[in-house]
Amino acid sequence: MKIGIPKALYYYYYFEKWRYFFDEFNIELVSFDTDREIIAKGNYYASSEMCLSLKIFLGHIAKLVDKCDYILIPKVDNYGLKDQMCANFSCLYDLVNNLFDVKILTYEIDYIHNLNELKGFIKLGKQLNLKIKDIKKAYHKACIKFNKKMKEKIMINTNKLDSCNKKILIVSHAYNIHDNYIGKIIKDNLTKFNCEIIYSDLFNNTSDLSFYLSNELYWKYSKQNIGAIVLCKEKIDGIIFLTTFPCGLDSLVNELVIRKIDKPYLNLVIDDLDAEAGIETRIESFVDILEQA
Amino acid sequence: MNCYLGVDIGSMSTKGVIIDENNKIIALSYIWTEGNPVEAVKKLINILKNQLDKKYIVKGVGTTGSARKLIGLLLNANVVKNEIMAHAIGTLSIYPDAKTILEIGGQDSKIILLNNGIITDYAMNTLCAAGTGSFLSSQAKRLNINIEDFGPLALKSNNPVKIAARCTVFAESDLIHKAQVGYKKEDIVAGLCRSIVLNYLNNVGKGKKINSPIIFQGGVSKNIGVLKYFKEILGTDVIVDSNSHLMGALGIAILSKKNSSDKVYDLNIENIEFKTKAIECKGCSNNCEILRIYKDNRLIDNWGNRCDKYIKNC
Fold first, then answer.
1. Which residues in chain B touch residue A292, judged by CB atoms under 8 angstroms apart?
2. Are strands A75-78 and B57-64 parallel, antiparallel or unpaired?
3. How far is residue B193's CA from residue B226's CA, in Å, rounded to a whole number?
4. Number of CB pairs, chain A paired with chain B, less than 8 A apart
5. What is the pLDDT of residue A198?
């Protein structure tokens, strides 16, 4: 049996946990790197109001449809009243269900209504006829391995703050900066100019720090991102805000933060058009200015 | 005597200057790119060469603008830099106390904030060309007006029409509508100039503190209609240098001076055959468009690929 995991949105938060969980049952996972073909497919299925990241997600589904038995799409709504997800995340299941003829595995996470992650995984396992005892065991094992892996990643990211190169904090949702297509252009360009890239999503408990920039926000990942600014603003040289057009959360959060920080910043908005030359010019001039300062 | 060449190859026009050791411009030229940067640069170099005194030898070449990479290869430039730096350095060499640079070019527009001669902040238009020179020139063509006459015509108007400033697509349909209901040409042209300014201040200039002295440059700064509305809306004086369109070229020439070595550059490039060939790589589903650059039928560089497959071939 093969389970398809679209390498977009959820993937960048849960994939490792899923992998460790399904490893316990020897279930194979399939996913593909984002490429131009996937973006084109996503554009075909998406409506024009959707953000590029969501278009990419739909492109991945289109690519996976005939290559696996199930596609895993959870419905994550919130981790509590002040830790909500973007509304797009909770609608993905219904969206795909309506657009594609494919078997979907799903589970809900909704802490407000007392649906935690373990309950979700039990529901997930039951759809595959796994025993509850085995599911619980596999889930706990997966959590331990996942936490260890995250710790390593966070450590690498934190250590970069002591680098002697120019340090640039990328404030972006994980699914944008770690994406193989849209994020890679940015990473490649920054590496070319000898910059150290620090990721806003790879820190421990930065959500609470977001309070210093705004106490009104209730989006889990936006809070994490801007908390990272508070955490490392003394150690970094500049900030790049990376947004996919038209992201509702970022259009509010980034505008709000930009008014309150006193660091050089670059606001990069990526659309599905291929404008690598434009991105290169913007990053190159940004790095020039950091070097001049 | 030593001199240094700076070339700024934009989407609409190609600018070149030659400066001496004291940053004084000793030769200058400004021509249309017409979609062919290589030919434009060959023409430009020819004009500059004829202006240049025989006693000078070229010790540095710099390129900037959207075709900087390609022309950098053609001229063997010692400096290839983006427009922001070039513009800031060019302007600072003439106005050392400048605080704000407004720049509107063919497809880019930018704002650069300076303090004590150091860039403190800048912004560039997002990846869409709304409110830039290419929009003005396509509208000029639609109205059957020479782009050079655009500004003087706008000044004649007492009643500029209101044109949506958000987006060029909206602006264009607004414009057609206004023309169809019988507005005078000069009112429409003035409305366009005003919408360019509003668009610029609402997008590029959003949230930036625009302090005097303000320098306005780039190709569009030659349009006195746009200048008038900048002054009117900002409520303060805006300086346009007589060489405002050459600032990028001047800046990059100064940068190449700073980076120069003993190398002497030859400006005889008319007979160099320079070709670019675009191929679509079929290696993976990214289908990258790869540009291969040939100098005298010898492959010298290629770019556009997302992996390093083509790096090995030259």
1. 118-119
2. unpaired
3. 5
4. 51
5. 95
How much is the pLDDT for B126?
67
Cβ of B124 within 8 Å of Cβ of A289? The answer is no
The residue among B71, B61, B4, B7 whose CA lies nearest residue B39 is: B71
In terms of DSSP H, where are the helices of chain B?
37-51, 68-75, 83-94, 133-142, 150-155, 168-180, 185-203, 224-234, 247-258
Burial of B22 (0-12, 13-18, 19+ CB in 10 A): exposed
Which chain B residues contact residue A293 at CB under 8 A? Answer: 118-120
Chain B contact present for A277, CB below 8 A: yes
Model pLDDT for residues A230-245, shown as the tens digit of each residue: 999 899 999 999 998 8
The domain containing residue A28 runs over which residues?
Answer: 2-150
Return the amino acid letter for A227: G
Report CB contact under 8 Å: B207, A258. yes
Query: Around Cβ B248, how many Cβ atoms within 10 Å?
Result: 33
In this predicted model, what pLDDT tens digit does every residue of A135-190 receive, in sequence order?
A: 999 999 999 999 999 999 999 999 999 988 999 999 999 999 999 888 888 999 99
Strand ranges across the sheet with A238-244: A195-199, A166-171, A238-244, A265-270
A273 → closest Cβ in B121, B127, B286: B127
**CATH class for domain B96-240?**
alpha beta
pLDDT band at B199 (very low <50, low <70, confident <90, very high): confident
CA B215 to each of CA B66, B101, B132, B154, B231: distance values in angstroms, whole numbers, following the listed order:
22, 5, 17, 21, 11
Residue A228's pLDDT is 94
Instruction: Select from A90, A78, A95, A124 the least CA-distant residue to A221.
Output: A78
> Smallest Cα–Cα separation from B306: which of A63, A35, A197?
A35
Are A201 and A237 contained in the same domain?
A: yes
ipTM: 0.71
Tokens of A212: 């210093």
Q: From B54, B57, B49, select the one nearest B20 (Cα to Cα).
A: B57
CATH of the domain at A240: 3.40.50.2300
Distance from CA of A249 to the nearest CA of B (A): 18
Q: Where are the domains of chain B?
A: 2-87+249-258, 96-240, 274-313
Distance CA B248, CA B218 (A): 8
Strand partners, B27: B18
Rounded to the nearest angstrom, the gap between the alpha carbon of residue A70 and the centroid of all alpha carbons in its chain is 22
Q: Let me know if residue A284 belongs to a domain.
A: yes
Of B108, B285, B306, the CB nearest to A37: B285
Please tell me whether residues A44 and A138 are part of one structural domain.
yes
Two structure tokens written together for A141: 């094992």
Q: For residue B151, what are the CA distances in angstroms to A184, B31, B147?
A: 44, 19, 8
**pLDDT of A248 above 80:** yes
